[in-house]
Write a structure and sequence with these properties.
Structural class: mainly alpha
CATH topology: Tetracycline Repressor, domain 2
Largest sheet: none
Number of strands: 0
Number of domains: 1
Helix content: over 70%
CATH class: Mainly Alpha
Number of helices: 9
Distance between the termini: 54 Å
Strand content: under 5%
Order of helices and strands: HHHHHHHHH
Radius of gyration: 19 Å
Length: 187
Amino acid sequence: MDAILDAAAHLFTEQGYESTSMEAIAARAGTSIGSVYQFFEKKQDLFLALAHRALEDVRAVAEELTGPVAEGLEWRQLVELSVDGFVAWGKGSIRLSAVNANLQLYGLFEEADMALSRTLVDRAAQVLLQRLEHLDAEQARRIATMIVNTINTVMFFGSRSTPEEATTMVEEAKRMLVAYVGSYVAP
């Protein structure tokens, strides 16, 4: 199944969802069309499985960036690590590329994406409350929402930019988020 999903991700990115056939996915995966249909009744099911895998990948990256690797970091370093970490992951994720290249299908996984966004905001708010103890829960959630949405935006538009533009966007996002979060740091 992983080979099928990887093949589909590459083809959906390269050719688009509409132009990719189940037969092409089977050929790229080096398997029979019957094997593809054994796992996925239709192409939409395959895309949905791929989108859910991409969302799980995002969850895993978030857990990694807010786990033990982040424990000794001050808030400013953690903000920069989060931007760099998500952007680096996004650049190398064929699953994310396939999803972003076919946003006309967003409705298929919108509910799962919104649930993940809420989870990421909740986790970021918890981290903020641990690091900036003077914040109340509402402030932490508001700041976390801005951090998560800014990183999402940088990842999305950075993937559609030249490498130089993407690098500039990442650096400016880090500067912006550090200044923004810094405005909430107690004097």
